[in-house]
C-alpha cells in the first residue's frame, strides 16, 4: 500500500464498468501531465443497529478486505496497460471510512479527482452516482466525471464554457492545458444571455443595439482568450458566441468534443457548496468526460 502524494490525480475505484472508464481516462491524463496516479478504494464502515447483534464473523472481514484488494489490484493492472511507461507512478490505497467525505478530504491535496459517472447499485444507475454527485458539489479541486456511453475520438477538440466568472477563468486554464497536451483544438463557447434562443427573421431586422451587444460580446471573449492564446500558441481556438441557454448549447457541442470543461458555478451563481445549473446539466447529460473546475 502506498499513500497518495500531493498534487497527484486521485481516482475513486469500485470495480464497476464506470470506474474502469475513469481509471483508463485518468491513467492517460496522469501520464501526459507527468504526475502520480493514486487509485483509491474506500470501504464504508459497517453500521450496525443499536440492538445487541452477534459479533461479525472474522471471515466476513477477511472477505471484504480481499475484495477491496482485488478492486485496486485490477485497477492498477488496467492503468498499467493504458500507461505502460507510467507504472512507477501508479499507487493504490484501500481506506475505511465514509466514501464521499474521504475523497473530499483527499481532494485538498490533489490536482484532480476522477470518478465514474455511475456506481454499482441500481439506485446509482438511475441517477447520477452518489459519489460523483457528492464530489462535484464538495471537492476542493477540479473533478472529472467520466461517462461510459461514448468513446470520443482523440482528434476531437476540447470544449470549454466561458461566462466571465472566476470559476470560468479556472475552467479556461484547465481547458487550454488539456488541449495543448492532447494536441487538439479548443472550442470556447460563450453564451451572453440565459434567456433562450433570440432569433430574428433577418439579421437586418435586428435592432442595431442588439447587434452591437453581440459584437461587443465577441470582443470580450477575444480579450478573455488572448492571454491564454499567448501562453498556449500551439492551441488553435474556435470561438463560438451565442445568445442562448449555455447548458443547451454546450451539450450540443459536446457531441463533437472529447472533453468538456466548465466552472462549478457561473455568473450570478452561488459559491461554496452549490453546483451551477450549467455544470450540473453537463455532468448529468454529456456523454463525454466532464471536468468541473472546482477550487477552494
TrEMBL record:
Belongs to the universal stress protein A family. It comes from Mycolicibacterium poriferae. The lineage of its organism: Bacteria, Bacillati, Actinomycetota, Actinomycetes, Mycobacteriales. InterPro entries: Rossmann-like_a/b/a_fold, Universal_stress_UspA, UspA. It holds the Pfam family Usp. Transmembrane segments: none annotated. GO terms for biological process: response to hypoxia. This is Universal stress protein. Gene3D superfamilies: HUPs. Residues 8-147, 157-294 form the UspA domain.
Amino acid at each position: 500500500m502506498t499513500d497518495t502524494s500531493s498534487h497527484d490525480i486521485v481516482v475513486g475505484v469500485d470495480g464497476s464498468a464506470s470506474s474502469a472508464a475513469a481509471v483508463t481516462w485518468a491513467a492517460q491524463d496522469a501520464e501526459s501531465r507527468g504526475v502520480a496516479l493514486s487509485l483509491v478504494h474506500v470501504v464504508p464502515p459497517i453500521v450496525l443497529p443499536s440492538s445487541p447483534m452477534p459479533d461479525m464473523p472474522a471471515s466476513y472481514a477477511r472477505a471484504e478486505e480481499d475484495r477491496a484488494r482485488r478492486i485496486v489490484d485490477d485497477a492498477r493492472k488496467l492503468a498499467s496497460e493504458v500507461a505502460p511507461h507510467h507504472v512507477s507512478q501508479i499507487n493504490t490505497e484501500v481506506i475505511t471510512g465514509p466514501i464521499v467525505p474521504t475523497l473530499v478530504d483527499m481532494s485538498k491535496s490533489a490536482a484532480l479527482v476522477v470518478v465514474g459517472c455511475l456506481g454499482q447499485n441500481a439506485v446509482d444507475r438511475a441517477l447520477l452516482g452518489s459519489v460523483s454527485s457528492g464530489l462535484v458539489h464538495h471537492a476542493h479541486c477540479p473533478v472529472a466525471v467520466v461517462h461510459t456511453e461514448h468513446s470520443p475520438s482523440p482528434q476531437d477538440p476540447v470544449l470549454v464554457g466561458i461566462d466571465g466568472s472566476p470559476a470560468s477563468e479556472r475552467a479556461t486554464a484547465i481547458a487550454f492545458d488539456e488541449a495543448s497536451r492532447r494536441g487538439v483544438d479548443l472550442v470556447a463557447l460563450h453564451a451572453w444571455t440565459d434567456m433562450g434562443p433570440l432569433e430574428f427573421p433577418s439579421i437586418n431586422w435586428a435592432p442595431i443595439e442588439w447587434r452591437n451587444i453581440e459584437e461587443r460580446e465577441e470582443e470580450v471573449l477575444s480579450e478573455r482568450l488572448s492571454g491564454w492564446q499567448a501562453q498556449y500558441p500551439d492551441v488553435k481556438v474556435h470561438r463560438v458566441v451565442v445568445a442562448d441557454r449555455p447548458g443547451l448549447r454546450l451539450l450540443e457541442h459536446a457531441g463533437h468534443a472529447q472533453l468538456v470543461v466548465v466552472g462549478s458555478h457561473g455568473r450570478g451563481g452561488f459559491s461554496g457548496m452549490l453546483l451551477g445549473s450549467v455544470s450540473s446539466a453537463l455532468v448529468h447529460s454529456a456523454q463525454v468526460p466532464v471536468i468541473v473546475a472546482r477550487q477552494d
